Amino acid sequence: MDEQLRVGLVGAGPWAQMVHAPGIANHPGTRLTAVWARRQEAAAELAGAHGASVAEDYAEMLSTVDAVAFCVPPGVQGEMAIQAAQAGKHVVLEKPIAATVDVAERLAAAVEESGVASLVVLTRRYAPETKELLKQLHRTGGWTGADARWLAGALLDGPFSNSPWRHDRGALDDIGPHAFDLLDAALGQITDVIAAHRNATGLWQVILQHSGGATSTVSLSLNLPMQPPFADFTVFGEHGHRTLSSRDTTALECYTNLLDDFVAMVHSGTTTHECDVHRGLHLQRVLDLARRKAGA
Fold first, then answer.
1. Which of 74, 80, 93, 85 has its CA nearest to residue 110?
2. What local confidence, expressed as pLDDT, does residue 1 receive?
3. DSSP-derived 3-state class of residue 10
4. Which residues pair with 48 in a beta bridge?
């Protein structure tokens, strides 16, 4: 690219340190220009590690960048991303994109009205192995169902174990968007949550209805002491079954692939993508319906 996008990063927690900051700083099409976080010392440490400046406040950051990448809880991200979009800034959003459907709808409207590019960090969707499997599934057809399991102990130990929003919202909001997105992409749009249940240990089990008649089941937990985490995704139908077994592409590599798409969108003036803000809004509605079905 002839000109790098100036990107501001909101947030300086573990995921920002592991993925967002190095991804933006090392991508040829982006430049990590500024970091803003509630804790200024954390922002300064992260910014210093990647040659960026520290924004004294959010408004200052918006005046110096072309785009904003968010790595903060959904309850914080929603309103801040609306403000960024209204200021004409392109946005990279974490999932879920907001804390409520109402805020997610306002965010999608702000992005559309401003004509800015948007992408949601649905990590595995940017992995080559996932893209290849989805191509095979769509080419073959005839799939009637799927099972997805995403089981980990992230709330028990490790860099995300002290995350208040994850403890509050649990596996449904943290890893649910990833699972629902893959199932939706494989079987057709999720049109209903047939049933949902969360047990006392935080295990979520959800049954989904898809357009075209397929159904799928999902099990999600962040409270099981599994090292490494266990995740599988199997689709079945008249032609047998297909399983997404390879996770060779790292999260940072997936994020780099996301930035490839993001930079191309901005430079070409494209505002639609299979993982844009409207995808995030659709997943927000699925999360909301699952929570209501479970009475949670």
1. 85
2. 44
3. strand
4. none
Each residue's pLDDT tens digit, 25-57: 999 999 999 999 999 999 999 999 999 999 999
Q: For position 2, what pLDDT does the model report?
A: 55
Whole-angstrom distance, CA of residue 85 vs CA of residue 78: 11
Q: Let me know whether 192 and 237 are in one domain.
A: yes
Nearest to 280 by CA among 109, 145, 86, 163: 109
> How far is Cα 170 from Cα 281, in angstroms, rounded to an integer?
19
Q: Look at residue 286 and tell me if it is in a domain.
A: no
Is 28 within 8 Å of 263 (Cβ atoms)? no
- Cis peptide, bond prior to residue 228, ω within 30 of zero: yes
- Rounded Cα distance between 269 and 144, Å, is 38
Q: Can you state the percent helix, strand and coil of the chain, rounding each to 5? A: 45, 25, 30
Give me the phi and psi of 5, to 5 degrees please.
-75, 130
Which residues have a Cβ under 8 Å from the Cβ of 150 and sit 6 or more positions away? 171, 175, 178, 179, 218, 219, 220, 221, 229, 230, 231
Model confidence over 251-268: pLDDT tens digits? 999 999 999 999 999 999
Do both 115 and 133 map to the same domain? no
Residue with tokens 């803003």: 36
Specify the number of domains making up the chain.
2
Domain residue limits at 63: 5-123+251-276
Model confidence band, residue 176 (pLDDT cutoffs 50, 70, 90): very high
Question: Which structure tokens are listed for 138?
Answer: 């769509």
Could you give phi then psi for residue 77, rounded to 5 degrees? -60, -45
Spatial separation of the C-alpha atoms in residues 66 and 101, rounded to whole Å: 27
Q: What is the pTM of this model?
A: 0.95
Q: What is the Cα–Cα distance from 195 to 153, expressed in whole angstroms?
A: 24
Place 244 in a pLDDT band, splitting at 50, 70 and 90: confident
Considering the chain, what is the average pLDDT of its residues? 96
Structure tokens at 287: 């999360």
